[in-house]
C-alpha cells in the first residue's frame, strides 16, 4: 500500500487515509482539546503526506510517521492561535460527568484538568499510547526516543499525574 | 501496582473520551481536499501528473549536464579535496561550517540535522529515520565518514557541498550517493538553525550516549565567568543531575553521576572542547 501510494496510486493513498485518519484526528484532539484544530491539523498532515509519503522508509514506519506529522501540525496550530487558555476551558466544559472511579478514588474531571496541565508533547505521547494504541516501537518511531525511553517516560507521566492529583 | 494499573486504565478511558468517538472516514472527501489544497500551492496540478513530470524533466535536463560534469571531473578520490570548481555561491574561505541543530525551514521540525563540534552528527526525519555518525569538512565539501544507518547503501562515505549564509544551510550533490534516503535529506531541503535547542546564551547542548545504554542524555554546558564549567543533564526532559568542574569533562561527569560508572566517565571523556 505504501509503495503504491508513493508511486502515485490515488486509490492506495485513499486506503491509507481510511486506515489512519481517525488515529491522527483523535490524537490531535487530545493534544489540542479543540476539534477544529484537530481537523485542520489532520488535513494539513495529509497534504504533507501526499507530497512526502515517498520518503517513508518501510510500512512499519507509516502510522507513526502520519500520527507524528499530524501531532506536530496540531502543536503548530496551537502556537499560532494561542489557544491554551481556551483549551482548558473546552476540556472542563466538555468532560463527562466527572465521577470518582472507585478503583482509584480519582474524579474524572480532576484527571482531565491534570492532563490539561501537561505539556502538549506529553499529551501527544499519552494520546499515541492510549488513543492510537501505539506500542513501544511505534512510539519510538514517532518520537525519536528509544522504546525503553518511551516506556519510562509514560511511567513518569502517570506518576506525575498521580502526584498532581494527590497534591491538588 | 494494582492501584497504578487501575489509574492507567482510568487515564486511558479519559483520553479516549477526550479524543471523541471513532467514526467513519470519508477518504474520498479527504483526498479531494488534499489534492485541491495541493493545486492551490501553485503547481496547478497533482504531484504525479504528467505536467509535473515534464517540468521535472526539464529541470533535470538543464542541470544534468552540470552534475555529470562535476561527477566526471571528480576523479577516483573518494574524498576529494576542497574543490576549485563550482564553489557554492555563499561558501567562502571566511565562512565556517556551522554546528548546532538545524531543522527544515518549511516545517520547522523535520528533517533535522545535528552537527557537533566533536565531528559527530545526527540526521533524522521524525518518525521514520535516524542515523548517527562522524563527519569532516574540507573547504566547501562536507563528508559523512561513518554512520549507523540501516538504509541500503547508507554506510558508505558520501560528500556534499555545503553553503551557509548565516541563516540557511544548503547542501548540493557532489559525486554519487547510493543512499537515496540520505541524498534526499541533504539535497531536497533547506535548513535553518533551531534556535530553541542550541547555543543559547553561550550554552551548548550536547546529545550524548554510550553504546551500552539504551538512552540518550541531553547535557547543557556553559563556561562560567570564573572559568569553571557547569553542566545540567536530562533524560527525556527529566532532570538527571547537575555538576560543576574545572574542565568541561569534569562538569559533564558530575552531571552524569547518577548513571554510575563507567558510564559517567566514558561519556564525559567523549566530549571534546
Molecular structure report:
The complex is a heterodimer of chains A (about 170) and B (about 270). Chain A is an all-alpha fold. Chain A has helices at about 1-5, 10-30, 35-50, 60-80, 85-95, 110-115, 120-130, 135-145, 145-165, and strands at about 100, 105. The longest helix of chain A is centred in the N-terminal third of the chain and has 23 residues, at about 10-30. The model of chain B is unreliable at about 40-95 and about 195-200 (pLDDT under 50). Chain B has an eight-stranded antiparallel beta barrel with strand order 1-2-3-4-5-6-7-8. In chain B, helix 5 runs antiparallel to helix 6. Chain B is an alpha+beta fold. Chain B has six helices and twelve strands. Chain B starts with a helix and ends with a helix. Chain B has helices spanning about 1-20, 25-45, 50-70, 180-185, 250-255, 265-270; strands spanning about 100-105, 110-115, 120-125, 130-140, 140-145, 160-165, 170-175, 190-195, 205-210, 215-225, 230-235, 240-245. Chain B is about 30% helix and about 25% strand. The interface between A and B is large, with 66 and 51 residues.
